[in-house]
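Feature request, filed as a ticket because there's no other form

It would be nice if the structure record came with a short human-readable summary line next to the tokens. Right now we just get the raw output. Example of a typical job, pasted below so the devs can see what we mean:
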Amino acid sequence: MLSKSIRPLITMSTVVLLLAGCAATLPGKDSGQLPDFSAQTISGENYSSAELVGQSALIWFWTPWCAICAQESADIVALKEANPDLLVIGIAGYGSSEEMVSFTKRTNTTGLTHLNDETGSLWNAFQVPIQPSLVALNSRGGLRLKIGPSTAEELQALADWAN
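Raw output as currently delivered:
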């Protein structure tokens, strides 16, 4: 039987180890390198990861049926307006092309480039598990993943990191 003085130490050590194991998936953590990809925009134009090399960018992962994504869209547009040199790209997943186009019209995000990822292959390449999520890319090629909804302040912090 463990003594009473050792039990709290073991409990605390277990908590620390569990939290350390989760660190790789916590929002705002570095997440590797830009995956090599080619895709089409929702308007049918070709787009590849080569266009992002050397750029500061924010990549917004959304779905056309996501109410939180629709709500977050106003902050995404405002972020782009406040940071005109920041490349902001949407990656729309898990919906039809028609639904994606309808979403961009409804949310006034038609001024952004949106990639069509009906199959989720880009989401998988970036290791994005849920919508909305963000990946910030800095000009040195570093990536930072933010999982889940973001406030305007969190969006600006990611933009600052990317720049």
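Something like this underneath would help us a lot:
The CA atoms of residues 47 and 72 lie 24 Å apart.
Strands lie at 29-30, 38-41, 46-48, 57-62, 87-93, 113-117, 133-137, 143-147.
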